[in-house]
Fold:
Amino acid sequence: MLEFLMNAIVFLYVVWNFVTLILYATDKYKAKNNGWRISEKHLLMCAFAMGAIGAAIARFVFSHKTLKTKFNILIPAALFVNFFALFFLFERVGWPIDVLWLVIIFVAVGAMRDFRNISRNLLRR
Structure:
């Protein structure tokens, strides 16, 4: 029963990150075509609600919200929150934590990229 529950949680986590990625992609498309936009609040809420990996991938792939200081700070923060929630979940159930090292590397690379963008934006002012 526990194995089924964990598999369901991992499946939902992957699906939610994909949905978050699609939301960011849709907002980028609408930004380019002057369409109705998704609010920044909702985009950030999706990231903090365990969709940070999808948000980070979308920001990297679509170059969306990369110049916004708010996103450059809060998306890495959401990645860390998501990582610690996953770490806690994996540890509680006894799943191997080795898989999370990939997430740590992704978070570190994303955070370095975002902080580089922050410093560039501050120097432009």
